[in-house]
Amino acid sequence: MNMAAALFNSSPTLLRFARQIANEIQGAVLDVPCGYGRNARLMSSLGCRVICLDNNTQAIAAIKNNASPNAGELVPMLCDLKKDPWTFPNNSLGAILNIHFVMPELLARFEQSLMPGGFLFIETYDNRGGNYLALPKPGEFENLLSPAFDFLYYIERRAGPPKSNACTVRLLAKKL
Questions:
Q1: CA 70 distance to own-chain centroid
Q2: Is 174 in contact with 149 (CB distance < 8 Å)?
Q3: pLDDT digits (tens, 9 = 90+) for 15-53
Q4: In this structure, are residues 40 and 74 in contact, taking their beta carbons and an 8 Å threshold?
Q5: What are the chain's domains?
Q6: What predicted TM-score, i.e. pTM, was given to this entire model?
């Protein structure tokens, strides 16, 4: 996997679990938001069909223009998660990757759209500058997801000034 890390510059935490996710899922992977597709390309290289969702037209165009013929399918979709409707039906996705984008109201949509046994991988952005203000509270993601998910990996780290009530989160969960 080290070659994939160098090639795609993927999330190091996702690299630990990518093969397991690819081997166990039944449906497509949703990378939301995908940016320029560094994590989508990793999953595609493992044979997954990956839906790449982002609001950046340049990023979506780059994914369309750089698809590898020796990998799983990349399906770029232009979408603004803050404005556009959620278009993924219930139980339709095998996995969802949500990396460096924090929008807790999406968690319920993720739960609905994942198939039973589907994987949810979340990695918030790191604690830099004032971004801690948008990070979740300790235990927030765990509390929101625990009724419908079994956590295979869950790490929280305090973020922001000592009195702030924020944390970074990295998790891999499987829908019950």
A1: 23
A2: yes
A3: 999 999 999 999 999 999 999 999 999 999 999 999 999
A4: yes
A5: 2-166 (3.40.50.150)
A6: 0.93
